[in-house]
Design goal:
The structure is a single chain. With 155 residues, the protein is mainly beta. It has one domain (2-151). The protein is built from 1 helix and 8 strands; from the N terminus they run αββββββββ. It has one helix at 2-15, and strands spanning 18-27, 30-34, 37-41, 44-56, 61-79, 87-101, 107-122, 137-151. The chain starts with a helix and ends with a strand. Mean pLDDT is 88; it is low at 1-11.
């Protein structure tokens, strides 16, 4: 009887070793007032994919390695600054560590942190219609911190 119970627990733990998520969402608009003028980043669509692998699960905490990719294909910019780019696209790739508390319970809070790579591609034209002489591709590093709560709705 005990052996059967342990085998059932082991199967459930194996099934939860890998986590995958796809999210389609909307990047919010943002208005900035600067000394040279205003920038208004229009809202845009964003697609996120995350793969997580559980590395360890001591009693009340689970440690995961996550790899996340977020893409925002196109966001228009309305600007009173003539040299501003007309639109841009972005891509973020972020490996991170995630701590999940009470991983076997119905409600499980978590926190995450990591760093990775950002790619921005800007328009060939500026806001004033002239050719954009700035570099088309911009590569940067990034830092990511976050947290949340997982709630199991169905078993």
């Amino acid at each position: 009887m005990r052996l059967a119970f342990l085998l059932l627990l082991a199967h459930g733990a194996w099934a939860q070793r890998h986590e995958r998520a796809l999210t389609l969402g909307r990047a919010a608009s943002l208005r900035l007032s600067l000394a040279a003028g205003t920038l208004h980043l229009q809202a845009g669509t964003a697609l996120q994919a995350i793969y997580g692998r559980r590395l360890a699960q001591p009693w009340m905490v689970a440690l995961y390695l996550d790899i996340g990719v977020v893409s925002a294909p196109l966001r228009e910019i309305r600007a009173t600054i003539p040299a501003a780019t007309r639109d841009f696209a972005s891509l973020y790739v972020t490996p991170a560590l995630r701590l999940r508390f009470l991983p076997s319970s119905r409600v499980s809070p978590w926190m995450t942190g990591g760093g990775g790579y950002s790619l921005y591609e800007q328009s060939l034209q500026r806001a004033d219609g002239q050719s954009n002489s700035a570099p088309r591709l911009i590569h940067r590093g990034q830092l990511m911190l976050g947290g949340g709560v997982d709630v199991k709705v169905l078993r």
